[in-house]
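Please, does this match?
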Amino acid sequence: MKPLVFLSLLFFTLLSIPVLAQEQQIVVPYTLADRDRAILTEAKINALEAKMEFKFDSQQRQLDDIKTLFYWGFGILISLFIFMFGYMIWDRRTAMQPALMQASKAEENSRNLINTLREYSKKHPDLAEILRTHGIL
C-alpha cells in the first residue's frame, strides 16, 4: 500500500509542475499608457482632496458664523429677561408704596373713629352697650 501512495503522490507532483511553470511565466505588462493613467488618476484625486478641503474650510467658517450669531442672540435674550425681572421688582415696589400709605391712613382713621365713638359713648349709654358687645369698649 505504501508504494501505491508514493506513486500517486509522485504522479500528482509531476502533473502540477507545468501549472507552476505557467504561473511563473505570466507577466503583466505595464505600459507607458498605464503609467500615464496612474498619474492622471493621482492628479484627479489630489484635485478632489483640494476641493473637499476648501469646502470643509468654508463650511467651518459658516458654522463659526452661526455659532457667533447664537451667542449674540442668547446674550440679548438673557439681558432682556434680566431687565424685565428688574423692572417687575421696581414696579411692584413703587406700586405698593401708595397702597401701604393708604393702609396706614385707613388704620389711623379707624383708630380715630374708635376713639371718637368711645368718647361719644360716655354721654350715650346705649352706644356704650353696643360697643361692649362687640369688644370695642
About this structure: The chain has one domain: 34-133. The longest helix spans residues 32-121. Residues 34-133 form one domain. The CA atoms of residues 129 and 135 lie 10 Å apart.
